[in-house]
Design brief:
432 residues; mainly alpha; Cytochrome Bc1 Complex, Chain D, domain 2; 3 domains; 14 helices
C-alpha cells in the first residue's frame, strides 16, 4: 500500500516543484528586464546632461579665448597710444598736428591754438570789443522780448513777481530804496549784450542768434526811453552809445582808505557810556516803538477816502468833482492801478518813469506831460488836440496797442470793465 502511494505522490510533487521553479524563473526574468530598462533610461539622461555641460563648457572656452585675444589687442593698442603720447610730449606736438613748444619752466602743456581760444573767447567788453556782426531794432526786439523774456521781466521790462525790473528807476540811486535797473544803474551797454547772449533766456541760454540779442538790447534801451522806437543797434554803432549811469562808478580804493581804519583792536566792553536809539529803520519798519513815544514829524498819509469829503466854498471846481467820486470805486481802482505802477506814478511826489506821471490826466491833452518823451503816435495825437476823457481812457485801457497803434506801451490791457471804471475813477481822484 505505501509503496504504491509513493509511486503516485513522488512524481506529482516533482511536477509541482518543476512548475513552481518555472514560475519563479519567469518572474525573475521580468523584474530584471524592468531594472535594465530603468538603468538604460538613467544612462540616456546622464549622457544628455553631459552633452549639454560639454557644449556649455566649449562655449565658455571659446568666449574666454575671444576675450583673451581682445585683451591682447587692447594692451597692444594702449601701448601704441602711450608711445605716441610720449613721442608727442617729447617733441612739443599734439596727436593731430604740430603745436607750439611747451612751457619751458614746467615742461607741461602747450600754448592754446587760435581756434581753441576763439571757442572760449565769447565775452564782450566796454566799447563793443568782442561783438559779432549783427543788428536789430527796437521794434523787432519787442517781439523777441515778448517771446523769450516777458514771462519773467514783463511785457515792457517792468518785472514780474520777484524777477528783476529792467526799466525805470532814474534819479532814484540817491534814495533810501534805489531802483537799480539796466537804464538807471548799469554803466556799460556791453554788459547788457554779453549777459543776454550768454545767460538768457532762462532755461535756454545761448539759443539766441546775434541779431536777436541786438534786437532785445535795443528794446531794453527803448523801454528805458533812452532811444526812439525806430532805433537800430548794430556792431557798427554799438561803441557810440553811452549809458545813463556811465559816470556813476568810482575806483574801489577801500584797501588803502578804509581797511586800515577797520583793522584795529576792537572794543569788547564798556565801549559807550550809554546806548540809545538814534534812528528808526523807516523803510523796513523793524524798530519797535515804545508806547506813548513821540513820533516826531511823522504824519499819517492822506488816503483817497479824504477825496469824498464835502468841498468848501473856496475849493476849486476840480476838487468838487473829485469829492463826488465813489470812495469804494476809487479804493478798488487803487488796487487795480498796481498793475500800472511799475511805469506810472500819481500823487504829490509823482515823477515820470518808463511812462509819464498821470496826475490830472483826465481832461488833459494827449502827450502833454512835461518832461516825458512820447512816441510818435502820441505826439501826433497831441498835434490833433485830442483830450483824455473817461470814454477815451476806457477804450485805451481795454487794449492799448489796438487803440494807439505804435504806442510804446506793451501792456496787454484790462479785461474787466469794472476794473477799467475803477482805474479811471482812481485817476480822476488826482485832479492835477
Amino acid at each position: 500500500m505505501s509503496k504504491s502511494l509513493n509511486s503516485i505522490f513522488i512524481p506529482a510533487l516533482g511536477g509541482v516543484a518543476l512548475l513552481l521553479g518555472a514560475a519563479y524563473g519567469l518572474s525573475s526574468r521580468d523584474y530584471g528586464r524592468d531594472q535594465i530598462d530603468m538603468l538604460q533610461d538613467r544612462v540616456a539622461q546622464v549622457e544628455g546632461q553631459a552633452a549639454t555641460a560639454r557644449s556649455e563648457a566649449e562655449a565658455e572656452a571659446a568666449k574666454s579665448a575671444e576675450l583673451a585675444a581682445a585683451g591682447s589687442d587692447l594692451e597692444a593698442r594702449v601701448a601704441e597710444l602711450e608711445a605716441a603720447v610720449a613721442s608727442a610730449r617729447s617733441s612739443g606736438g599734439s596727436m593731430t598736428q604740430g603745436a607750439p613748444q611747451p612751457d619751458t619752466k614746467t615742461g607741461l602743456g602747450r600754448t592754446a591754438l587760435p581756434e581753441e581760444i576763439a571757442a572760449w573767447d565769447v565775452d564782450v567788453r566796454p566799447g563793443g570789443i568782442g561783438l559779432p556782426e549783427g543788428r536789430g531794432d527796437a521794434y523787432t526786439g519787442e517781439e523777441v522780448f515778448a517771446e523769450n523774456c516777458a514771462i519773467c521781466h514783463g511785457d515792457f521790462a517792468e518785472g514780474v513777481d520777484n524777477w528783476p525790473v529792467l526799466a525805470g528807476g532814474f534819479d532814484t540811486l540817491a534814495d533810501k530804496d534805489p531802483v537799480k535797473t539796466v537804464g538807471s544803474y548799469w554803466p556799460y551797454l556791453s554788459t547788457v549784450w554779453d549777459y543776454v547772449n550768454r545767460s538768457m533766456p532762462f532755461g535756454a541760454a545761448q539759443t539766441l542768434e546775434p541779431d536777436d540779442v541786438y534786437a532785445i538790447t535795443a528794446y531794453i534801451l527803448y523801454s528805458n526811453d533812452l532811444v526812439d522806437d525806430d532805433f537800430e543797434l548794430s556792431h557798427e554803432n554799438f561803441a557810440e552809445f553811452e549809458m545813463y549811469n556811465k559816470d556813476g562808478f568810482i575806483v574801489d580804493d577801500r584797501a588803502e582808505t578804509e581797511y586800515p581804519i577797520w583793522r584795529t583792536e576792537p572794543c569788547m566792553e564798556n565801549c559807550k557810556d550809554s546806548v540809545e536809539i538814534t534812528m528808526h529803520a523807516s523803510v523796513l519798519d523793524v524798530t519797535p516803538e515804545e508806547e506813548g513815544a513821540d513820533q516826531g514829524a511823522a504824519m499819517p498819509e492822506a488816503t483817497h477816502d479824504d477825496a469824498a469829503a464835502e468841498p468848501t466854498s473856496e475849493e476849486p471846481a476840480a476838487e468838487t468833482a473829485v469829492a463826488a467820486l465813489d470812495p469804494e470805486l476809487v479804493a478798488k481802482g487803487e488796487k487795480v492801478f498796481k498793475k500800472c505802477s511799475a511805469c506810472h506814478q500819481v500823487g504829490d511826489s509823482a515823477k515820470n518813469k518808463t511812462g509819464p506821471a498821470l496826475n490830472g490826466i483826465i481832461g488833459q491833452t494827449f502827450g502833454s506831460v512835461d518832461g516825458f518823451k512820447y512816441s510818435k503816435v502820441f505826439r501826433a495825437a497831441a498835434e490833433e488836440g485830442r483830450v483824455w476823457d473817461a470814454a477815451e481812457m476806457a477804450e485805451f485801457l481795454t487794449k492799448p496797442k489796438a487803440y494807439m497803434k505804435g504806442t510804446r506801451m506793451s501792456f496787454a490791457g484790462l479785461k474787466k470793465p469794472a476794473d477799467i471804471d475803477a482805474v479811471t475813477a482812481y485817476l480822476q481822484s488826482f485832479g492835477g
